[in-house]
User: Which sequence fits this backbone?
């Protein structure tokens, strides 16, 4: 008679580490497949991005254009695989040009495999309306910081103008990664 081994449930720390390693692996493999870019920043920033998306950002992957969502603005082109990995792993749904949720993933594993390739949903720098879940197009260094500050000011104004009947005003943190 053989003994049956029952797997022990993973601890929260083990789940977090496996998640971080998965993000790193997706990023490294995408850069390697593209034969373009540097995997160093995505590998180093994976724990930060995991923590932000897991514990801080308020978003609904089934409703990616929910008005009260937090925005993640990524301006570092070499680290754009982080955004694509998180969109895939969190299951963010695709949205069509009419802003209707389609029910399919915004970024599939095949999309990540085609990172930085012609007509890819995962271009070298994130592009708004090209890939659902990308909040703004960024390019030159510093553009993400300026854009996110403007988005935060607009959100604060919007909340102050339209949440006047509420005791609590909308507070939308904008996370920026810029070199």
Assistant:
């Amino acid at each position: 008679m053989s003994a049956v081994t029952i797997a022990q449930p993973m601890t929260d720390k083990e789940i977090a580490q496996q998640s971080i390693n998965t993000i790193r692996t997706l990023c490294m493999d995408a850069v390697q497949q593209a034969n373009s870019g540097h995997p160093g920043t995505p590998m180093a920033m994976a724990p930060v991005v995991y923590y932000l998306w897991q514990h801080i950002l308020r978003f609904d992957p089934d409703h990616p254009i929910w008005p009260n969502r937090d925005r993640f603005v990524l301006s570092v082109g070499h680290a754009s695989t982080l955004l694509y990995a998180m969109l895939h792993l969190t299951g963010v749904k695709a949205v069509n040009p009419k802003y209707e949720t389609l029910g399919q993933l915004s970024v599939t594993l095949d999309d990540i495999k085609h990172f930085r390739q012609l007509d890819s949903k995962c271009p070298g720098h994130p592009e708004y309306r090209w890939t659902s879940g990308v909040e703004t197009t960024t390019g030159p260094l510093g553009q993400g910081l300026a854009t996110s500050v403007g988005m935060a000011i607009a959100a604060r104004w919007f909340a102050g103008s339209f949440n006047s009947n509420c005791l609590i005003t909308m507070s939308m943190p904008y996370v920026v990664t810029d070199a």
Notes: The CA atoms of residues 145 and 156 lie 17 Å apart.
